[in-house]
């Protein structure tokens, strides 16, 4: 198992005298709000997804009790991160899970070896791809550490996430909606526009509008909930709307200007 910090630093648990015995990733749990209506029985008025908790059983191996104490302290420093981090299982190196440690680390002392469980609370409901859409567009599509079977990839297909047209499609090969309020999504635009630029995802109905001018020397970036023009915020010049990506093909049209290039960089999400 690999632990990856938000800055990209990776730690292999094998270097800490640890072995992953097994792990359990539960399915998404749904909580329903139910109201009784006379004559109609119970009806569901709302449904919410509950947070997922990953349980991993580890085996530690030490030489003596003093070695155990040293390992215990090292593992406390490894797992007790203030910020969320990612865990990656080596049998699925192309997926990562953003997590926080859910409870205190508890290891029974031993002079040789012992097993213990660690629970990680998932920050998001979904696993995300290690590779991004722009990685998939490149020759890295065939990198076994980035892509694998079951990720929705058609291996005979060429994927394109950068276009130079006002009409194009973007394929989300994951099985969950990508919402820039919660997930990584960066749209990089270079265009000529006299007074406005409007981007519409015909599939989701999302309409984003920037009410300013653009020249070939400008770069407009939609990153999360931000809009940046040449690195400066121009969010107040937009319609305060965002672009999301549904699973499958997303059909786009752009109005108000001529696209020179538009690139979508994001990670795919999986249940």
From TrEMBL:
Pfam families membership: Sipho_tail
Domain Siphovirus-type tail component RIFT-related: 21-121
Matching InterPro entries: Dit_BPSPP_N (IPR006520), Siphovirus-type_tail_N (IPR008841)
Protein known as: Phage tail family protein
Organism encoding this protein: Lysinibacillus louembei
